[in-house]
Write a structure and sequence with these properties.
- This protein has 151 residues and is of the alpha/beta class.
- 24% of the residues lie in helices and 38% in strands.
- The protein has one domain: D-tyrosyl-trna(Tyr) Deacylase, Chain: A.
- It has three helices and eight strands.
- Strands 1, 2, 3, 6, 7 and 8 form a six-stranded mixed beta sheet that branches. Strands 4-5 form a two-stranded antiparallel sheet.
- The protein starts with a strand and ends with a helix.
Length: 151
């Protein structure tokens, strides 16, 4: 599982011109799955994301978590996090989980997040989404479950 975490001042997602999700200060999370990902990995990744201390404290040090600042979350599925451009110039997506397997995992991911984040907004799995954001910093982190949890 991979999650691209972007600290944002605001973010939104539109589908066919209609806004389906919008947040103020918090995290825009792009989420992708690969073979072997399961509910245990999702729970561990949710915990990792929510405990990240990346927001500045009163001294300007990155010392506060999303909960500490009352932050919001916009969660967007993105299979392209598993793209490989190792061979040639056209990315391959063979490492991305098949949609029929990834869709229920994305729903589970959002359900677990929703239990802990009062204002969770989401994109729509498989939709052609237009994502807008105002990055804060910019501050962007790449989380890979295989790297974090040796799985």
């Amino acid at each position: 599982m991979r999650v691209l975490v972007q600290e944002v001042l605001s973010a939104s997602v539109k589908i066919e011109g209609k806004e389906v999700g919008s947040i103020a200060r918090g995290f825009l999370l792009f989420v992708g799955f690969t073979s072997g990902d399961d509910e245990d990995i999702i729970k561990r990744m949710v915990d990792k994301v929510l405990k990240l201390r990346v927001f500045p404290d009163e001294n300007g040090k990155t010392n506060l978590s999303l909960g500490d600042v009352g932050g919001e979350v916009l969660s967007v599925s993105q299979f392209t996090l598993y793209a490989s451009a190792k061979e040639g110039n056209r990315p391959s997506f063979i490492n991305a989980m098949r949609p029929e397997e990834a869709k229920p995992l994305f729903a589970y991911w959002n359900n677990i997040l929703r239990e802990r984040i009062p204002n969770l907004q989401t994109g729509v799995f498989g939709a052609d989404m237009k994502v807008s954001l105002i990055n804060d910093g910019p501050f962007t982190l790449w989380l890979d479950s295989k790297e974090l949890f040796n799985k």
